[in-house]
Amino acid sequence: MWIRHTLFVESDTIRPTLQTSISLMTNTQFHTIPALHPSWQSILTDEFSTPSTQNLLHFLEDQALLGKSILPAKPLWFNALNSTAFDQVKIVILGQDPYPTAGHAHGLSFSVMPDVKPLPRSLQNINKELLEDLGIDNSHSGHLQAWADQGVLLLNTVLTVEEGNAGAHQRTGWEAFTQKIIEALNHDRDDLVFVLWGKQAQKHESAIDPTRHLIIASAHPSPLSARRGFFGSKPFSRINEHLENTGKTTINWQLP
């Protein structure tokens, strides 16, 4: 039987304006989730009541009880949404799932914590393409928070991973949750840029209306595929050209 509970959200310091509680339906247990920016909460509250998300919450809870280390840390699960409010999104860069190495992932696709060296190979290739495309050298950093602050939603389709086990949380319910995010952006916003790197990201292309948004699709920046269409695709200049053409401020891709 379904019973209504109020979901109290764990407080954190990501953003001072984050909502502190969500009301949802849960069948057996009282769940807590990380804080969620109000602009996204109004869109996603109903999604927390779906069987898919309920099963996901149970799965994550069970994994924690089994002693599995879940990455990123729980307060950072929704860092992408908390870093870029719904009405501030200009670009969506869709990733797959977080880095499975402790201390790397912090909730933004492809990004790593500021002190991580060497950078993951995919991120090195992103920096190489940026240098070739716009002459910007970001080889000193892989912390992409500055992009998120300018309206780049760095979203993974799967928001958690088991430490040391890449892809372990695929097909557990996150894909349906993030699909809702993509659908909301497609339906309620105009002239966005969706960057789909690799086959996993391109599975979501059917949810995007190409008459309303620009879709940039290419191979993934992974070392296994970067030379099969990622290098030379010039995504960064194409993004800024679209922003200029639609009267929006361009992205400063240079990292601090």
Automatic annotation (TrEMBL):
The gene is ung. GO terms for cellular component: cytoplasm. Excises uracil residues from the DNA which can arise as a result of misincorporation of dUMP residues by DNA polymerase or due to deamination of cytosine. Keywords: Cytoplasm, DNA damage, DNA repair, Hydrolase. SMART domains: UDG (SM00986), UreE_C (SM00987). GO terms for molecular function: uracil DNA N-glycosylase activity. It is found in: Cytoplasm. Residues 82-243 form the Uracil-DNA glycosylase-like domain. It is an enzyme of class 3 (hydrolase). HAMAP family: UDG (MF_00148). The keyword Hydrolase applies. Pfam families: UDG. The lineage of its organism: Bacteria, Pseudomonadati, Pseudomonadota, Gammaproteobacteria, Thiotrichales. Its EC number is 3.2.2.27. Belongs to the uracil-DNA glycosylase (UDG) superfamily. UNG family. It catalyses: Hydrolyzes single-stranded DNA or mismatched double-stranded DNA and polynucleotides, releasing free uracil. The active site is at residue 97. SUPFAM superfamilies: Uracil-DNA glycosylase-like. GO terms for biological process: base-excision repair, AP site formation via deaminated base removal. Its main location: cytoplasm. This is Uracil-DNA glycosylase.
